[in-house]
Design brief:
- The chain contains seven helices and seven strands; from the N terminus they run H-H-E-H-E-E-H-E-E-H-H-H-E-E.
- It is of the alpha+beta class and 250 residues long.
- The chain folds into two domains: 3-85; 94-248, Heat Shock Protein 90 (2-Layer Sandwich).
- The protein has a five-stranded mixed sheet. A two-stranded antiparallel ribbon has the order 1-3.
- It starts with a helix and ends with a strand.
- The mean pLDDT is 92.
- Bound molecules: adenosine-5'-diphosphate (ADP).
Length: 250
């Protein structure tokens, strides 16, 4: 085979893989939506029994139904998580479209989206904004939103009750650096060497929070690197974690 036919067969194979990948992701998305709809229907039926709408229950019946309700709630949460991962994996895999991105505005909007979740865990998110507005970065807004969502969500998820999340932004070595610091469980020494591997979850994280896939940081690193940026972290088990990423100025 010559070079040209090598390239065209690789291109065809690449297109085939992309199509298969996207078909799979569509199947997951449609399937999980249907499962979530069925689980939600079940939820309301169990709730009607628990609320006594269909007559008084014995203590034994009520205890069993309460367990069924809780188990169903866990399943709904897991399915919702699969839907979210599927969506963010789709975004992470697509070709980036670069434009001028105002990170300050994007961070503000992400903090707003997580305010309910943080409040429910008694966690305060503090955005330490600089006096001078930072320069815009060259980035794909949708992909950078995934990065911020992953890092902020982890800073809440792996935090302690009533913990804090500090976010800051500054210009450093001709790049814009964002840091997301939490006061949570930290990452073990073993975890620190494997944190960006796909599907890796640290033992302490699995104990604290059953929900998780180990995909978020893998995608986050991929996105930052395709932007010509860098990501790193500092952490101590039991003593919080700070993630830093830098992106080129537009
Ligand atoms: P997930 O959170 O779904 O498990 P991620 O890829 O986002 O997946 O993170 C991978 C692992 O990195 C987590 O399971 C956890 O062990 C660790 N981790 C990530 N962020 C933090 C953090 N802020 N504090 C402690 N551990 C973290």
């Amino acid at each position: 085979m010559n070079k040209e036919s090598d390239i065209s067969s690789l291109t065809a194979e690449n297109e085939r893989l992309l199509k298969t990948g996207s078909a799979k992701s569509d199947i997951v998305s449609v399937g999980t939506h249907q499962i979530r709809t069925s689980l939600s229907a079940l939820k309301w039926i169990i709730k009607m029994f628990l609320d006594g709408d269909l007559g008084k229950l014995t203590t034994e019946q009520e205890n069993l139904l309460r367990k069924a309700y809780e188990s169903n709630e866990r399943a709904i949460k897991k399915v919702s998580e699969i839907l979210l991962i599927n969506k963010s994996e789709d975004i992470a895999e697509k070709e980036p479209v670069f434009e001028k991105v105002d990170l300050l505005e994007l961070i503000d909007s992400c903090i707003f989206d997580f305010s309910g979740e943080a409040h429910a865990c008694g966690i305060e998110i503090i955005f330490l904004t600089p006096n001078e507005k930072p320069k815009p970065v060259r980035g794909d807004r949708e992909k950078l939103r995934i990065v911020l969502e992953n890092l902020i969500e982890n800073a809440i998820k792996y935090n302690n009750q009533n913990g804090k999340v500090f976010i800051s932004i500054k210009e450093i070595e001709k790049m814009i650096q964002v840091s997301i610091k939490d006061t949570g469980i930290g990452i073990s020494t073993l975890g620190q060497s494997r944190i960006f591997e796909k599907f890796f979850r640290d033992e302490n994280a699995e104990k604290k929070e059953a929900m998780g896939s180990g995909i978020g940081l893998f995608d986050t690193k991929k996105i930052i690197e395709e932007h010509g940026g860098k990501i790193y972290f500092e952490s101590k088990q039991g003593n919080g974690t700070t993630f830093f990423f830098r992106l080129p100025i537009y």
